[in-house]
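Students often ask why inverse folding is considered easier than folding. One informal answer: many sequences map to the same fold, so there is more than one right answer. In these notes we will look at a single instance of the problem. The structure comes first.
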């Protein structure tokens, strides 16, 4: 049986829509992945034969003052899942890089996380690859969905409340619809062979700034809110944001035949669900 952890998040909910009754879905209430004994007992009791780990501590700013909890969920939890003895697909993040690059990151680029969130996610990657016999780490970026809390839903809410909005233009990446990542994972699962290990990058195609993304959301939603570009220094946050988060997807496309849509098309698809 396939197990989806972190099933109440954006990606977990999208996988639930695609997989239906063909998987078990857990969140913290059903399975505490930071408890090794609980993980082993659950996997054995339910005859789990593959795990997709969507569970994560994703409050990037809060993690700066809550490192112990972030490490438990982002590093200890994946280690426990990796030691369960079944193939594991683990979802990670662009935050393992510092964002200082000027070309799309490839999987072999040396990580250099600049935040607690990034450091704990990188530790999780290492635990997965060291402890599992069969494991894929899939890094993604700028995830949004019709589920949960995310940039698209925040912009729709603020755009309806305000006449104007300031959004940073000097942070560049690729908006990624969680449905697209879920579809890629579903396509990859049957191709996962025993002993296969590796890191792969996935985001939607194209590149934009947060300002471009926000402006396009307002335009497509028909909201009159004016989006104004500002620099990151004008909007300080506890956790440093990467200035450049573009991921090179060549490896995952070549290895698994994954088709990746442009972010604007996927934004249209998501907005149809939200508007």
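Output (designed amino acids):
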């Amino acid at each position: 049986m396939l197990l989806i952890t972190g099933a109440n998040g954006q990606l977990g909910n999208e996988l639930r829509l695609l997989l239906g009754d063909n998987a078990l879905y857990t969140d913290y209430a059903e399975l505490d992945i930071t408890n090794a004994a609980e993980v082993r007992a659950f996997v054995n009791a339910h005859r789990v034969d593959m795990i997709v780990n969507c569970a994560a501590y994703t409050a990037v700013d809060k993690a700066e003052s809550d490192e112990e909890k972030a490490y438990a969920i982002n590093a200890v939890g994946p280690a426990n899942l990796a030691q369960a003895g079944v193939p594991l697909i683990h979802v990670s993040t662009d935050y393992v890089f510092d964002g200082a690059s000027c070309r799309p990151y490839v999987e072999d680029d040396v990580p250099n996380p600049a935040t607690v969130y990034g450091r704990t996610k990188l530790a999780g990657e290492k635990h997965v690859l060291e402890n599992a016999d069969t494991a894929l780490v899939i890094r993604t970026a700028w995830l949004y969905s019709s589920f949960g809390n995310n940039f698209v839903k925040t912009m729709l809410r603020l755009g309806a409340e305000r006449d104007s909005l300031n959004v940073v233009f000097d942070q560049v990446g690729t908006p990624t619809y969680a449905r697209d990542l879920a579809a890629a994972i579903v396509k990859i699962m049957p191709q996962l062979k025993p002993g296969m290990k590796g890191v792969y990058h996935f985001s939607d195609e194209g590149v934009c700034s947060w300002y471009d993304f926000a402006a396009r959301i307002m335009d497509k939603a028909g909201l009159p809110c004016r989006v104004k570009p500002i620099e990151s220094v004008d909007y300080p946050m506890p956790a440093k944001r990467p200035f450049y988060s573009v991921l090179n997807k060549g490896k995952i496309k070549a290895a698994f035949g994954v088709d990746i849509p442009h972010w604007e098309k996927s934004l249209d698809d998501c907005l149809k669900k939200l508007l």
